[in-house]
Write a structure and sequence with these properties.
With 279 residues, the chain is mainly beta. It has helices spanning 232-235, 255-263; strands at residues 2-3, 10-12, 25-27, 32-35, 48-50, 55-59, 72-74, 79-82, 96-98, 103-106, 120-122, 127-128, 144-148, 168-172, 192-196, 216-218, 225-226, 241-243, 248-249, 251-252, 277-278. Helix 2 links the parallel strand 20 and strand 21 (277-278).
């Protein structure tokens, strides 16, 4: 194991680490490392590679796909650019793939469908193009999915509905393409739901009241219509925050919403700015 987090390390990643034949974990997060990941590392038996918050740049190397022992690959908050290499689809043991906050472009490679052991997938704050592809049908173990402000177009793919083990679903800022509200009925363990600015034109489904683990709901900046359904049962359990800001909802604000607002120290927790809703 090599862990040197937050040590103000500068320079490039040393190819010579390949000489540590039994190394399984490299964590060099929160440093000032630049350049790219050395090609020599492709011959290692790494299981965990974390290079979060550095200054690494250029394309994500395709030879990372040769480290088939990888279980966790975390490259968040660097300056990687270009498309995600399809060779990452060879990392069939991967449990965690985090590529947030880079400058990645292009479309998601369909080869990622092969990553059937994923429990966490985060690609927010990038510059991808095209639609979110239907790559989720094999990700039966996925628990955390985050695609916030990634540059994608809608609609939300139907295969999202197959992710019954999700505890965290965050999608935001889809450009164009009207979406229906995805079917989340079987996500009984869902704790955090964000479908913000996804051009959803639909009603808020009543079955959300059956997702008893929900603590946060954010459906702001969509085209939701109709009345706010009765989710009072959730406020008696774990629901702490609900955002419905800037939709097309109508009718009166339900008493259970007013009650939760009056009991909350944060008056914005159930934020609503719909001109057609009456207080």
């Amino acid at each position: 194991m090599l862990t040197l987090k937050g040590q103000d390390l500068a320079g490039v990643l040393p190819p010579s680490l390949v000489k540590l034949r039994h190394i399984r974990i490299i964590d060099l997060s929160r440093n000032y490392l630049n350049g790219t990941i050395p090609r020599e590392w492709a011959s290692t038996k790494l299981e965990n590679l974390s290079l979060t918050v550095n200054r690494l740049s250029g394309p994500i190397p395709d030879y990372l796909g040769n480290i088939t022992t990888l279980i966790a690959l975390t490259l968040e908050s660097n300056m990687f650019s270009g498309p995600i290499p399809p060779q990452l689809g060879k990392l069939v043991n991967l449990d965690k793939l985090v590529l947030n906050a880079n400058y990645l472009t292009g479309e998601l490679p369909l080869a990622l469908t092969n990553l059937s052991n994923l429990t966490e997938f985060r690609i927010g704050s990038n510059n991808f193009t095209g639609r979110i592809p239907d790559i989720f049908q094999n990700w039966k173990q996925l628990q955390k999915l985050e695609i916030q402000a990634s540059g994608f177009k809608g609609p939300i793919p139907l295969s999202i509905s197959s992710l019954n083990n999700l505890i965290e679903l965050r999608i935001s800022d889809l450009n164009g393409g009207v979406s229906r509200f995805p079917s989340l009925r079987n996500m009984k363990g869902l704790e955090k739901l964000m479908l913000r600015s996804c051009a959803i034109s639909d009603q808020i489904p009543l079955y959300l009241s059956e997702l008893l683990q929900l603590g946060i709901i954010d459906l702001s900046f969509n085209r939701l219509v109709g009345k706010i359904p009765n989710l009072a049962s959730l406020t008696q359990l774990k629901l702490e925050k609900m955002y419905l800001t800037c939709n097309l909802l109508t009718g009166d604000i339900p008493d259970w919403v007013k009650k939760s607002e009056s009991q909350s120290p944060d008056s914005e927790e159930s934020g609503i700015c719909n001109s057609a809703i009456r207080r």
